[in-house]
Amino acid sequence: MDVIEHPPIFHLPGIPDHVTYTWLVMIVLAGLALAASRNMGLVPRGVQNLMEVVIEQIQGLIDDVMGPEGRRYLPLIATLGLFILVGNLMSVVPGFATPTANLNTTAACAVIVFLTYHWIGIRKQGALTYLKHFMGPVPLPLKPLMFVIEIISHLARPLSLSLRLFGNMTGGHILLAIIFFLMGLQGLIGWALSGSSAGAVIGGIGGLIMVAFTVGFLYPLKLLVAVLQAFIFIMLTMLYISGAIEEAEHGHEAQHH
Amino acid sequence: MRRTLMLTVLGVLGAPVLAHAADAATGGGWVGPFAVIAAGLGMAIAAGLCGLGQGRAVASAVDAMARQPGAAARIQTAMIIGLALIESLAIYVLVVAMILLFVQPIK
User: Fold this and answer.
1) Model confidence, pTM
2) Residues 99-158 of chain A whose Cβ lies under 8 A from any Cβ of chain B
3) pLDDT one-digit tens code per residue, B61-102
4) End-to-end alpha-carbon separation of chain B, Å?
5) Is residue B39 part of a domain?
6) Does any CB of chain B come closer than 8 Å to the CB of residue A22?
């Protein structure tokens, strides 16, 4: 992968870059939390106001998707969402490594979600009832088959969660790397500087088009993807947790994926 | 027309063999060039079909939103989740293409 991975500007020797930048995300989030909670007032101002808006948005989302009993899981969901959002937004800062463009980070988040929603389901309704639910609303002879299929589909959930985030972030990186490769000293700009008149015209115009394309299209697209992927991650987390809870209340019903 | 197409396909798929025959002395594997072609073709097919699927989903969602503007927010949320699930299929192909290009498990 060394074709597409530039070393970031800040590099600790012996430590992988995504770990370093995960620490940076932690510092940013902890600093925001400290700044928001230091001078807490009844009428929020400044950073406290900003963080309250963010938390209220996530709370409203949880109320919409999971109902009132979902508020217990606000710490988990909001932490995941903020961590992934800040990690994703690092992909648009030039010279920074993106923690979420590494499969290890996203797989860690996805495994946490996987273990948590099963734990919540087992806590809510007991291990046997929860396992029984995997067999679904089908006649008895089909139940073993259904059980295997459900197990596989549940195992595919952390896989798709982690691969989706990783693929989107890395795909954006590869796109930018290819555009910069086209623009770089071996590409259009190098041609413009090479001294030949045709190269100056074509390379200059092509380089300008590429710069405009990057600034006007690729960077907004990467911002959109960063926010959207964080949203989708916490959205699917909420759906999985509410799927594990709802089974206790409505009994055997067709569950949604 | 058809013969031209077939010759093109044969040329594209056969070029690595010829290239390999040219530098067979270097001792490189023969899978590498085919892996590059497979990554490109696979990504193209996946992106095209994923675009078709997402287009259908968005068309239905916009249709439903136009019929029932009151439910637009919920429909939009469901649409975004569905788009994410469809898109993850193309992302799988992207991951496989990256493995073929950068990790190269089979030389």
Assistant:
1) 0.81
2) none
3) 999 999 999 988 889 888 988 998 898 899 999 989 988 888
4) 36
5) yes
6) no
